[in-house]
Amino acid sequence: MEDIVIIGAGVTGCSIARELSRYDINITLVEKEEDVACGTSKANSAVVHAGFDATPGTWKAKLNVAGNKLYPALCEELDVPFKMNGSLVVAVNEEEVNALDELLKKGKMNGVNPLRIIGKDELHALEPNLNPDARAALDAPTGGLVCPYELTIALAENANQNGVKFWLNAPVTDIEVMGDYCFLVKTPKGNIKTKYVINAAGLFADEISKMAGAEEYTITPRKGEYLIFDKQFGNMVKKAIFPTPTKISKGILVCPTVDGNIFIGPNSNDIEDKYDTSVNAAGIEEIITGGRKLVPNLPLKNVITSFAGLRAVSNTNDFIIEASKLVKGFINVGGIQSPGLTSAPAIALMVKDILQDAGLDLKKKKDFIPHRPKKYRFRELGSEERRKLIEQNSAFGHVICRCETVTEAEIIDAIRRPVGARSIDAVKRRTRAGMGRCQGGFCSPRVLEILTKELGADPLEITKKGPGSNMLVGRIKEFLQDEGGDQNDN
Amino acid sequence: MITKELVIIGGGPAGLAAAIEAKKHGAKDILLIERDSGLGGILQQCIHNGFGLHVFKEELTGPEYADRFIKELEEIGIEVLLDTMVIDLTEDKQIIAVSHKKGLLQIKADAVILTMGCRERTRGAINIPGYRPAGIFTAGTAQRFVNIEGYMPGKEIVILGSGDIGLIMARRFTLEGAKVKCVAEIMPYSNGLTRNIVQCLEDFDIPLLLSHTVTYIHGRNRVEGVTIAQVDDKLNPIPSTEKFISCDTLLLSVGLIPENELSKMADIQIDNVTGGPVVNQRMETSVPGIFACGNVVHVHDLVDFVTMESRLAGRGAVNYLKNKMPQQKFIKVSPGSDIRYVVPQLIDAENILDEKQNFFMRSTRPMEKARLFIESEDGLIRAKVLQHIKPSEMINIELKKEELANKDIKTLKFSLQEEGVDNGN
């Protein structure tokens, strides 16, 4: 019997798993997808928000500011790149300038510090590519950048090192409440008996809550589309540039990534289908228009890819983080939309407190490992370090992804690490192989070959992103026989 | 630190021809660096024939064409490092490369020839809406899977773009028993060589839909189909013409981009139109002693022209190594009406090698018949009638040294005038 089953391996579920892995309890994390960070955590703005935007008094506001403060140490501990580059909210007309004052007030109430408004000259000196009409901006130096899937993967790896079991490709099909603090969580991979269930199922949290007979709420997917530009334009802006926000969204940003690209997006459209991560022509138009409002000369010819993500918006419009009053032992962590990424470390601490209040005895492990296994990023190293690495392991001398300079050793490591990669996209998220300007054109056959070798699999079994997404459909000549062609044809 | 007289980066057709030519003309200490496990570059996966008509007066397959050069390279003894990737190049010709056998290598060269080739444009570059499932491949990646690895990336295929690799793969997939449903080309004319349209599409009854594009990719895990639509004369899709075509694979053959990451590291000047370095009459870039040839300079449609250009770069590098002569006054070469680009972009007329100069260029649109004018600021140098002009088929013109030298001209302009049409030029 497990103490805890966590449902959902996004940044929320993995943060909770990693936090709880400090204690002497048995935890299993179940995830419907083939890898961690496959939902909202994979496709968002990747900004660690300062916290001026959320309505004072909400969980969003409290946990945002608290989470923001936890980031530097957490990322340091887990060796996850994090950059506190600051955020700017830009006003282009008088009305927006007034709105900045409101935002400043809100930010101060939320406890964001430092926070100030800067004038035109200072703004344009900071960001020379900005729209010349930009008049003023709210400057929040504590805004930062993180790679959301890299953080989620790091949390999962470290949780796994500390004993958390991961069941991937395991969608929860039913939750049987066997009594107070006693559940049977059912998945196609098997059933798990547990005392507590933590529902961190993102877009599907409403369905999971209903399954257990806990409080009912709804999660609406709110789509945001993005375009990413080639790294050669990585210096277009230095800070995350926000427009003056509207009621439902922080607006379309022009923003660097921690890995050195620039993106524009997201727009914000409520949809029905929780699996609809398609990008639409109208959406692309919308984000280009929005992006140009901030930075008129966007290098549109150097877009390397587009994607869409879905925010998990609850009907309360705030995070829902509470022990169920209806079902003892069931804890909802739902409606984690923006600033969910920023809040995740604080949410994990809050969930720990909820568990303790519910009576779970949390004793610290003596042998907790705070760091994940050393990860090498060949592209970031100097010549001497590179030379030494290749001497130790010659696979570091074999560059597989030329755009991002990813070596064979890094790809093998990504497969062998805790909660290791099992697909082309999982390798990509762990190493950046295939994320550059050629988008895997060169490296994907080579990554497929390494996966085949490492997993002892047939190339036909290797997928892009889990079941049903096989890269290859057959051997050559196979289809000729299928169709009863000339069998004597040599 | 290793020192070399001449380092060539890239062992495809350009690097092979340049290395051999340099050796034949007196370069002694040459190193050829190739990141793959064998020489020949992308030719090794081009198992169809049609290579070598100009250079060998024969029709060879890609591997056969490459093999002739590889054998010659071995015979004349040129040092080669395989499985070795150059990761840094500086303006003073210092190179850092890595390999699993030799570790990290630091090399100082007297001269360098860049022959890194090109890469394929991707879906992101053309922004096709829809999902991001498995089953979207660039034509070259699919070609590698089929011809090198022996696997089929798909069974029911739609091809976007009529570039030559896409056309070749349409035939290849058909011969392997897959169904190629159509080739959609956004332009009102095809983007491949005429012979490929005939031999790869028409001979197999594969429809070529001109003025069509893919407007949506369907399928969450694997491609389930695409929506295609006709485009108007501004290339915008016409919604009422949209139709769904089921398929498990979308192949992209939407253009090639010279691969100049190393050139940019060395601060080499890049031509915005070609995407490759600006070069002079001996294929030297803006950095003295660094040369470039083949698809890294501009995308060719025939490997034979790559070979010709690369031999010139090989001789150019030797010419530099022998006397290091500074380049003299340059004639600036520019494209005029209906010419998209001309290579080389600069000519030092007094120092043209071997008494003649080749110019490669592309038209901006197809024309049945046109007159090519080559003019300096002093007037017409030569005019020539050309037939069946297509942007996809490179125009190659040779000028004699005496047509350019000793005339003190500063500019050279190439322009096309369609015959029978007065466009006011």
Give the proportion of residues in helices of chain A.
25-40%
Strand content of chain B: 35-45%
Mean pLDDT of chain A, to the nearest integer, reads: 95
- Largest sheet properties of chain A: 8 strands, mixed
- Mean pLDDT over the residues of chain B: 95
CATH topology annotation of the largest domain in chain B: FAD/NAD(P)-binding domain
Indicate the percent of residues in helices of chain B: 10-25%
Largest sheet of chain B: 7 strands, mixed
- Low-confidence stretches of chain B are none
Quick one: CATH superfamily of the largest domain in chain B?
FAD/NAD(P)-binding domain
Q: What is the CATH first-level class name of the largest domain in chain B?
A: Alpha Beta
Largest interface: A-B, 65 and 53 residues
SS element count, helices of chain B:
9
Q: Determine the number of helices of chain A (DSSP H or I, runs of at least 4 residues).
A: 13
Coarse structural class of chain B: alpha/beta
Cα end-to-end separation of chain A: 61 Å
Radius of gyration of chain B equals: 22 Å
Q: What coarse outline of chain B follows from CA principal-axis ratios?
A: globular
Protein name (chain B): FAD-dependent pyridine nucleotide-disulfide oxidoreductase
Keywords (chain B): Oxidoreductase
GO molecular function, one term (chain B): oxidoreductase activity
Domain FAD/NAD(P)-binding (chain B): 5-298
